[in-house]
Write the structure tokens for this entry.
Amino acid sequence: MTLAVTLAVFAPAAISAAASAGAVQNSTPKPTIVFVHGAFADSSGWNQETADLQHRGYPVIAAPNPLRGLTSDADYIRSILKTISGPIVLVGHSYGGAVITNAARGVNNVKALVYIGAYVPDNGESLATVLNPKKYPGSLLGPGTTLIRPAPNPTAPQGQDADIYVKPEDFRAVFAADVPRNTAALMAATQRPLAYTAQTEPSGEPAWKTVPSWDLITLNDKAIPPAGQRFMAERAHARIETVNSSHAVMVSHPEAVEHIILDAVRRTG
């Protein structure tokens, strides 16, 4: 197949038709579990949860979160959700919580939002403003533990942005204190950066105002303070569970993540 023919196959009309056909074929009595990772991570963080839930018979999508801008990231995740015809349980970790808060808006078959050590912003709040560090201290994320690299970003003003990384030498302490050192070193080396635009862009009207929510609070978290997590979860009227975990709970405590997801499935099924 030539490149020209390949591109023609994926013209907008063909994509729409394929999505519609795929949505019909994907019809299932079990909800589709859609995972959305956060900053300094990628979809592989959900590997254990994905394998276990697939073994239980659930369709799973571990969506790639672009980490470029809150609006554009949410639009991208929403485009995936719209290809799924059956019920959806939407799961977000860290910055991914802000993304699902916006991505689920207007997608009526999202039956539950599950926040995992996550940001749960309200309208007009950004990652940079939702938690006052004086009121909710304890995060190790900051100038001393991060590094900045200039980067192009089409969603940023003038197309130029800055990518934020956790310094490799600080990654385990900030993100993954209860993960084996070798695993944490691999996570640090393969981390995906968060664009400054994504950190500072205000959130829109939150889906948690209309969609039932669950929240797993990570009590040993050094990225998002647990007290701040609880404030956001209670404000969203989420069903709350807790786990003695670092921020990398999806890697260190997959069973706790699966437990709260299955609770959401049971209560919304």
